[in-house]
Structures are given as structure tokens and as C-alpha cells.
Amino acid sequence: xxxxVKFGGSSLASAEQFKKxxxxxxxxxxxxxxxxxxxxxxxxxxxKVTDMLYSCYNLxxxxxEYEEEFEEQLSAIRARYDEIIHGxxxxxxxxxxxxxxxxxxCKKIGRDYAASxxxxxxxxxxxxxLGYEFIDAAEVIFFDEEGNFDGEKTNEILSARLDETxxxxxxxxxxxxxxxxxxxxxRGGSDITGSIVAKAVKADMYxxxxxxxxxxxxxxxxxxxxxxIDVITYRELRELSYMGxxxxxxxxxxxVRREGIPINIRNTNSPxxxxxxxxxxxxxxxxxxxxxxxxxxDFASITVEKAMMNSEVGFCKKVLEVFDENDISIEHMPxxxxxxxxxxxxxxxxxxxxxxxxxxHRRVEPDFLDLESDLALIAVVGRGMRATRGTSGxxxxxxxxxxxxxxxxxxxxxxxxxxxxxxxHDFETAVEAIYDIFVNTxx
Length: 443
Ligand code: ASP
Description:
CATH superfamily of the largest domain: Acetylglutamate kinase-like
Order of helices and strands: EHEHHHHEHEEEHEEHHEEEHEEHHEHEEH
CATH class of the largest domain: Alpha Beta
Oligomer: single chain
Low-confidence stretches: none
Number of helices: 14
Number of strands: 16
Helix content: 25-40%
Structural class: alpha/beta
Strand order of the largest sheet: 3-4-2-1-7-9-10-8
Radius of gyration: 25 Å
Bound molecules: aspartic acid
Shape: globular
Mean pLDDT: 94
Number of domains: 2
Distance between the termini: 36 Å
């Protein structure tokens, strides 16, 4: 049995947290490949090392006038690592590393390099603490000339390297470009590294350790103590993450998805919890009809109405071209016989609104154009919906009882999700009503 274990920033924020991580890793022989993030926040007011590195680099990039602040910031970063070194009695000394980092910052080597040092240094400490081999991610994770992740080259080199390594620490978040420059993934990208490593070693499991006991059915800022999701499929997860549920970086599922490697979200502060298992498919019945609810506020809708629009070939295409030309991405597009409605992100749309209206008038000469703003979209997701009658009936009667007016309904033919549009100010009430009817009444 081979497991890749990735630990997020809050799991590695202090020596105390490192000890918990050490206990978790040592508990199972199979936890052979470790992917650490940079030290995160110790308290809610704390700053992540990655953010400290970005601001430190900004000071270096502005130049000499901020030398003092730069030195202070660099020392503050160093202090974060020293606290861990002393707290764990490690035998490493980071003098040389910080000398190199300082020189490179002053040479203005690049923001990505700067940010990557958070994971790099944490990887060195972790390897020392565990007695595992340290492998610099720049030597095994690759990007192409355009800066896109090069999966093929990475998999070839990384799997060959790990084949001959019994136990290793590979820092998350970064890799290198063909010219050797360091490049990072987007924020939270250590999750992706973990997934890449899991694929390379053909792991039986990718454990992603964080500070929550898995995915929750609904946002805990809206629902008090929501239940956790036991098992979720990749497709369900994708729907929920897209609509705002964040625990795992969205791109982290791609490397393992086709390999049949499950991802297990676990809680470093509560290791006895089983967490959420993310799988390609499952015949296990979900505990509730719905797997999760997620949503986002601040959408605008544009309704285009024209008599006989349905029989006009290419009508929708022409309308969509207007959005395309204005570089506005479309979220949803429910339609009627003589109407089509387009949902877009309000902030993206607002500044281009008049151009879009003019464009639609010119292209399709609508009878009527209606704009609405301050709308929220809620996704109710669940593989269990397919086999259950009356799911949408329950959703809408729950919303009616809660006095929520439904502005839009969109059910994909996969029956995996139902998207509901409501006013921004009804958003929380709507999520509560849906959670209540599917979860609370079933307990
Ligand atoms: N340290 C990076 C960040 O804060 C990457 C990660 O933690 O995954 O975004």
C-alpha cells in the first residue's frame, strides 16, 4: 500500500502542528511520499508565509529605499522557520538558504521564485524531521514554454525518480520552466502537486490533510454545524467547487481522476475523523438524496425576447457572439420559446453593459431586452437525485415555504445538479431551506 500525503499550510504553521503531522505520518507505513505547503496561519490574524514572501519580494523589487522594511520582512519569515526548527530540535540550519534567497530577491529573480521558497524551506524541515529524502520540486515538476503544466515530462521524470526512493518529501506549489526558472501553480496549488505525485507513484490513496474534516454539505457560514460528505464523486465535486465550495484546488482532481486514485480529505487536528472520500464512481448510496449545496452571489441576467425567435436559425449564436466579443464568460443560459436569458458575473458585465446591449440590438433586433442584477445562483448537487422522484418538487416547495421567489431553474440532463437563481438577499434563506428539507428532516 502506497499513500501520498499532502499537508496544507495550517497543518504546518508551527512546531506544534508539525508534531501532529509527524504522528500521522508515522502511524502508517504506507505514508511514504509527503507534499508540504508553506507554513500558514497560526491564528486568524496571522499571515501566511506565502503572503509574507510576496510582500517581501515586492519590497526588494521596488529597490533600495525600502531596504530596511525588506530586511525586517525577511527576518520575520526566517523567524517562522526558526520557531519550527527549535520547537522540534531539528539539526538543520537555514543560514545558507537565506543567503541565497536574499541574493536572488535583490536580483529580482521573480515573484514565483519568491513565493515558492515557502514550500521549499518547509520541505527541507519536513524531510529532516521525518528522516525522509528531500526532492526539490524544481527538479521533478515541469512547465512548458507557455507556462502550462507539462504532465507528460513530469510524470516520466518524477515516477523514475520516486521509483528509486522509498520515502521522500516533495514541496508543493512549484516546479520549473524549460529555462530553469521557478514557476508556481495558482494559489493553493500544493494540492495539485500532491495529485501529480500520487499519479507518478501509482498511489493507492492521495490523502489531503487540512483543517476541516472533509467537505461539508453546505457552507458553515450559512448552516450551523453542517454534516460532512462521506463520499463524493469527481463530477459532483467539480460542480460544487465551481459554485464556490473550496477545500481542494479545482485542478487537483485532474491528475488522479483517470488513474482511479481516490482522494481522502482529512483533518490534521482531528485525525480520527474519516473525512471525505473523493472517488471516480461509487455504488455506495449517498446518505442523503443530495450530496451538497453551494452557491455564489452577484450575478446579472440579460433576457432577450423576440417573437418567433425559436424558428430563427442561429439566433442564440448571434447573441452569444456579442458576449464573446466583449470577453464576458457566460454562467448559465436557460431559455423559453421566445426568450433566452444569459447569466453573467455582475462585476465582469457592468462596465461593458452598454456595449453588450448595443451589440444585441444590432445583431438580432430583439422585441424586448431586460436586465436584472443582484442575483445569486445555488447549485444542489447529488448523484442520488437521479434515482429519486420528487427532488425538484421538494426543493421548490421548501423555497416557497421560506418565502423565496425563484428567478431561474436549470437542471442539467445528467440529473446531477439543479441550479436555482434567487435574489442575493434570499440566498442564505434559500440554502437553509434546502438543507433543512434534505438533511435535517432525514436525521
Ligand atoms: N502556499 C501556497 C498558497 O498559500 C500554496 C498552497 O498552500 O497550496 O497559496
